[in-house]
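explain this:
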Amino acid sequence: MAHPHSHHDDDEDTGPSKSQLKRDSQALQELGQELAALGKERLAKVPLDEDLRDAVRDYQRFPSHEAKRRQLQYIGKLMRHVDPAPIRAALDAFKGVSAEENARMHRLEALRTRLLDDEKTLHDIATAHPGADLQHLRVLRRNALKERELGKPPRAFRELFRVLRELEGAPDNDPPSGDDEA
């Protein structure tokens, strides 16, 4: 007497295993946890349906660990009914942008430090950004050095960073326009 499932292995493999379903569910719950860790501004930029967005907001409001745990399970359940790819893409973009932006800020800080240490750095800036206002950069450099020497608030130091950031963000041959970022 043959077991009813012994010769129908092909039929059994049509769906994912119980273990795979559990792994998928856990992955969705972890994705939901990443969503719950976002700030309001970033959360608003993620493509979510309203139920899921409300559930994440509720999670963020809850003070109790147990309530958060249950809400996270609920978020995971809601995640089963949405396409996680756009959500994952948005979260990955936030991570990438953050890493890229940090690297950019470090580059600009290093450039500012080189400029303060050596005025010849202006030549490098002029080469990289032909439209740069070198006279303005010289004045800012001199003022930043004077501020540092006198122990004054670093207004010119910060302004120098802002101008360098604008230069890097502007197209190479176009000088940045006025004071867009005040």
Notes: Residues 84-117 form the longest helix (34 residues). The chain has a mean pLDDT of 83.
